[in-house]
TrEMBL record:
<protein>
    <submittedName>
        <fullName>FAD-binding oxidoreductase</fullName>
    </submittedName>
</protein>
<dbReference type="Pfam" id="PF01565">
    <property type="entry name" value="FAD_binding_4"/>
</dbReference>
<dbReference type="InterPro" id="IPR016169">
    <property type="entry name" value="FAD-bd_PCMH_sub2"/>
</dbReference>
<dbReference type="InterPro" id="IPR006094">
    <property type="entry name" value="Oxid_FAD_bind_N"/>
</dbReference>
<dbReference type="InterPro" id="IPR016164">
    <property type="entry name" value="FAD-linked_Oxase-like_C"/>
</dbReference>
<feature type="domain" description="FAD-binding PCMH-type">
    <location>
        <begin position="38"/>
        <end position="216"/>
    </location>
</feature>
<keyword id="KW-0285">Flavoprotein</keyword>
<dbReference type="InterPro" id="IPR016167">
    <property type="entry name" value="FAD-bd_PCMH_sub1"/>
</dbReference>
<dbReference type="InterPro" id="IPR016171">
    <property type="entry name" value="Vanillyl_alc_oxidase_C-sub2"/>
</dbReference>
<dbReference type="InterPro" id="IPR036318">
    <property type="entry name" value="FAD-bd_PCMH-like_sf"/>
</dbReference>
<dbReference type="Pfam" id="PF02913">
    <property type="entry name" value="FAD-oxidase_C"/>
</dbReference>
<dbReference type="InterPro" id="IPR016166">
    <property type="entry name" value="FAD-bd_PCMH"/>
</dbReference>
<dbReference type="InterPro" id="IPR004113">
    <property type="entry name" value="FAD-bd_oxidored_4_C"/>
</dbReference>
<keyword id="KW-0274">FAD</keyword>
<dbReference type="InterPro" id="IPR051264">
    <property type="entry name" value="FAD-oxidored/transferase_4"/>
</dbReference>
<comment type="similarity">
    <text>Belongs to the FAD-binding oxidoreductase/transferase type 4 family.</text>
</comment>
């Protein structure tokens, strides 16, 4: 038997081959995440080729008492992959789309498969995997499941949790948990699948999944509309849902702060009308009939009622893509400068306007010069609120964060709608999560990962 006591990585090199145990320059691509806020200095990045190798890596890591941080596309926004001295396990060599089964309406995929590759594969069978967001060209199955990602189509299709039927997970002791169900109904005991979705790598490593596909809409109708107020936007949403029989695929709020930032950072994305206080992006997806007339009629009715002030209906696919690009530039526009206090809250739909109004009043007291940027998946009450404070002092940033979460929670909201907790919201979890819920989470973590080696320090604040 070889002596690996000198360099524990030798054992991993024997297992995976030296090329798949990356250090130094080779691992540098993971050193900083997409936001530039979070950093990783791993002992090494491991690149297993199959579930058996992932399990063997986890067992070896246990022997050497090393922490493990799974990584997908590294596009998460909350510091979920940040670490110092851990083994990062990249699933990039496990990117196969094993099967698309049209009659069952499922895709069976490995956890390293890239979201846009799944879109392309489904489309060949006239199906869609509806989850979509700006980072779809990089985000991988394990990452979007572990963050329970949302995106722009939740209003019609639900978030990732509702789009996943089955999972395979390597647990902290190296056992493989086979939950690769293809069933739409299964009440045989606790729902273990949902435990791992949204767990951000703290309970195990997802290695494969069964995803649920939907019929591909044949017709799309999209528009950008300036609306009189947020309540007017919600009335427009109701009109559209009724007229289109629930075919609203995206209903995105892009108010003045967002459109002004878009004009500054992306002047190439020409805006069809002058700045208004409130604007929404609309996309309808018709399974069997065109919906342009429905969209135009609903906009005309709303204009008649004084609720829509201006609108541009896409006349072709290029114009629709242009409108989508205006919305999907959000992440690149947001992370343009530091310091920021970014939040990702969810509110009941009819609570969004009150939340924004109260937050703006209280921010003006805390930091009169602070700027805000708001963009929202309004159809599901999810607001991305970014504050750019005038001072970069930890207590000041904390006071702003605390104010935002207080206003949100008091109005029945959640402190994280879709991005998750990672490192960025640990203090918020301590302050805002129900203490009994936190105790239950700690008990689950201790049962599944008693040595606290799976993405330690993330999601659950210290007790
Ligand atoms: C431009 C842009 C737009 C975005 N838009 C949206 C949006 O609209 N909606 C939304 O919800 N999110 C959005 N996001 C953030 C979103 O969370 C991520 O893009 C995506 O879900 C993460 O996938 P990833 O493969 O990059 O995961 P990573 O960033 O690599 O990882 C995310 C977390 O999952 C864990 N993890 C990764 N792989 C595994 C695995 N195999 N098993 C267990 N744990 C694992 C990691 O440890 C980490 O905690 C956006 C990000 C960007 C950059």
């Amino acid at each position: 038997m070889k002596d690996h006591s000198a360099d524990p990585l030798d054992a991993f090199r024997d297992l995976l081959g030296a090329a798949h145990v990356q250090t130094g320059e080779a691992a540098a691509r993971f050193a900083t995440d997409w936001t530039g806020k979070w950093h990783a200095a791993p002992l090494a990045v491991l690149r297993p080729a199959n579930t058996g190798e992932v399990a063997a890596c986890v067992r070896l890591a246990a022997e050497h008492a090393l922490a493990i941080v799974p990584v997908g596309g590294n596009t998460g926004l909350v510091g979920g992959t940040a670490n110092r001295g851990a083994l990062m396990i990249s699933l990039e060599r496990m990117a196969a789309i094993r099967a698309i089964r049209p009659e069952a309406g499922i895709a069976v995929v490995e956890a390293g498969a890239i979201l846009s590759d799944i879109h392309a594969a489904a489309s060949e069978h006239d199906l869609i995997f509806p989850l979509t967001f700006g980072a779809r060209g990089s985000a991988r199955v394990g990452g979007f499941l572990s963050t329970n990602a949302g995106g722009s189509n939740v209003v019609r299709y639900g978030s990732t949790r509702g789009l996943c039927l089955g999972l395979e997970v390597v647990l902290a002791d190296g056992c493989v948990l086979d939950l690769m169900s293809e069933l739409r109904k299964d009440n045989s005991g606790y729902d273990l699948r949902d435990l791992f979705i949204g767990a951000e790598g703290t309970l195990g490593i997802i290695t494969a999944a069964v995803l649920r596909l939907s019929p591909r809409p044949r017709h799309h109708a999209a528009a950008l509309a300036a609306v009189e107020s947020l309540p007017a936007a919600l009335r427009l949403l109701r009109r559209l849902q009724a007229a289109s029989e629930g075919a609203v695929e995206a209903f995105e709020y892009m108010p003045r702060s967002y459109m002004a930032a878009l004009a500054r950072h992306r002047p190439d994305l020409r805006q069809p009308f002058a700045l208004h206080d409130h604007a929404v992006m609309i996309d309808l997806g018709g399974l069997s009939r065109p919906l342009d007339d429905v969209l135009e009629a609903a906009l005309a009715e709303a204009a008649e009622a004084g609720e829509v002030l201006d609108a541009m209906v896409a006349q072709n696919e290029a114009q629709r893509a242009h409108i989508w690009e205006m919305r999907e530039a959000a992440a690149e526009i947001t992370f343009t400068r530091l310091p920021i206090v970014d939040s990702d809250v969810a509110l009941p739909l009819d609570g969004v306007a009150g939340f924004i109004a109260e937050m703006e009043t209280r921010l003006a007291d805390l930091d009169p010069g602070a700027e805000t940027l708001i963009v929202a998946h309004l159809g599901d009450g999810n607001i991305h609120l970014t504050v750019y404070p005038t001072r970069d002092a930890a207590d000041h940033l904390d006071a702003i964060r605390e104010m935002v979460e207080a206003v949100c929670v008091a109005r029945g909201g959640s402190i994280s709608a879709e991005h998750g907790i990672g490192l960025s919201k640990l203090a918020t979890m301590s302050r805002r999560k129900d203490p009994v819920a936190l105790d239950v989470m700690r008990a689950i973590k201790a049962a599944l990962d008693p040595e606290n080696r799976m993405n330690p320090g993330k999601v659950i604040p210290e007790g």
